[in-house]
Amino acid sequence: MKKPHYFIKRYVFSWCLLLSFVLFLSCSDDDPDTAIEPEPAEPSQFAMVTSTLNSDGQTRAFFLQRVSVDSTGTIDNSGATELSPATSAMIHAFNGSIFFSDYAIGQMVKWSVDGSNNVSNQAEMSLVELGFQGNTAFRDENSAFVGGLSTSIVIFNPTTMTKTGTIDFSEFSKVGESTDFPMPGGTYQAESVTEIIIRDNYLFASLMPLTNIESFQPAEIGCSIIVVDLNQVDLNAVGNADAVVKRIYDERGSSTGAWGSGGGNSFMQMDENNDIYVLSHNFWANPFLRPSFNPACILRIANGETDFDEDYYFDVEAISGGTGNGVMNFEYYGNGKFLAAVQDPSAADPDNPFSYFVDPIFQWWSFDLYDQSASIVTEEYSRGALAAVSYFDEDSGYIPFESSGENFVMKVDLTTLDAVQHIETVGLPALYDLE
Fold first, then answer.
1. Which end of the chain is more exposed for a tag (fewer CB within 10 A), N or C?
2. Are 113 and 129 in contact (CB under 8 A)?
3. Radius of gyration of the chain (CA)
4. What pLDDT is stored for residue 404 in this prediction?
5. What average pLDDT does this structure show over 301-319?
């Protein structure tokens, strides 16, 4: 997304350009050797992780390399480093490093990739106690948080990759309690922390309550989030139960959180006004669960508040593909705008119960959180649940795309929404900011 420091950098750059011009004029024609030659601008770069499907049809091989936004044509994996030959993973970028979470074995690996595309393994950390981990939230170079199928959130140091403490929210957990959703007589079998977002000194951890872990059967119709006061958290202590403030709930939208979908993208985003927006995606647009849910929507936790904003509700289905066309992903690029993949259920394979997740039946759209509008970016279908993590640079977006038989990075003009195939890739791409 566009960050505020981008505008500061552009302002400073403008003054530097003016200064260079003045200095150039001050050099006399009699002394050309004193003229200042401006340094060529370094192209923006991102980390690209490509994954190729193995012959088992289940696992993927993952490759990491550094790519310039100025690249065109085809980029294969010959210059990339293999991160894993066969697994499933969610991936995050922080402070110039790539954090590869192999949730199949409960391991997080920190990788670095320098300007010469040299990739090295910096450290590893086991997270087997989380069962199936969620997305990681990085607060600063000394503290990060990650949850999973557990009533404790793990605190770790992302620089040293050592676990330092936990946040126990078991007092607010409903595991073991009865529920009549989706049918009478059910029980909360588990609650997974799918992802976390941090605003000021509060941590918001989204929950995915389940009555059946194996089938991902939901235990409630609404969206539940645990709120933690980080001022009350000792980063080096186990427990921190007193720091958990409350559990908030909103029935207008289902559970949120990517939980490994899209390569580690986030379904909770914060805008420039410090408002948190939450995409309730109705269990990844699963058509078998949709009749029990309201449409996919955006909910809000306003700046300074720790409860859902009852005055804000954005039905993202009605404004795009229509009710019944699920919406996945939440790639925020600034000024209230984000990209998301809208499902076309008519394109799904009726003989494949996982078609909604693995097949190219999604189209990219741009949404506006403020005026609640939407515009289609491309008519072409992509695997929206698998290809999501994007990179934004000034007025361009670089979007991963995987359709039948081809993989590429799509470049989108964020002003006009014109889209072109930019870089062809060998494997499904996902793009991570290295700044």
1. C
2. no
3. 22
4. 77
5. 98
Residue 285 corresponds to which tokens in the numbers above? 């647009």
Question: If residue 159 lies in a helix (H) or strand (E), which one and from where to where?
Answer: none
Beta-strand pair 107-113/373-376: unpaired
Q: Is the pLDDT of residue 301 over 90?
A: yes
Assess whether pLDDT exceeds 60 at residue 13. Answer: no
DSSP letters, 25-58, are HHS-TT-GGGPPPPPPPPPPEEEEEEEEE-TTSS
pTM of the model: 0.89
- Amino acid 397 reads G
Residue limits of CATH 2.130.10.10 in the chain? 127-251
* CA–CA distance, 245 with 228 (Å, rounded to integer): 5
Evaluate whether 75 touches 423 at the Cβ level (below 8 Å).
yes
Q: Is 155 helix (H, G, I), strand (E, B) or coil?
A: strand
pLDDT computed for residue 98 by the predictor: 97
Task: Please check whether residue 260 is in contact with residue 188, taking contact to mean a CB–CB distance below 8 angstroms.
Answer: no
- Is 339 in contact with 397 (CB distance < 8 Å)? yes
Instruction: Give me the pLDDT at residue 58, please.
Output: 86
Tokens of 12: 């400073």
Return the closest-CA partner of residue 405 out of 360, 363, 365: 360
Decide yes or no: CATH 3.40.50.720 for domain 127-251: no
Q: Check whether 37 has a pLDDT greater than 80.
A: no
Instruction: Please tell me the distance from the alpha carbon of residue 269 to that of residue 280, in angstroms, as a whole number.
Output: 12
Rounded to an integer, what distance in angstroms lies between the CA atom of residue 435 and that of residue 44? 10
Please tell me the distance from the alpha carbon of residue 269 to that of residue 349, in angstroms, as a whole number: 32
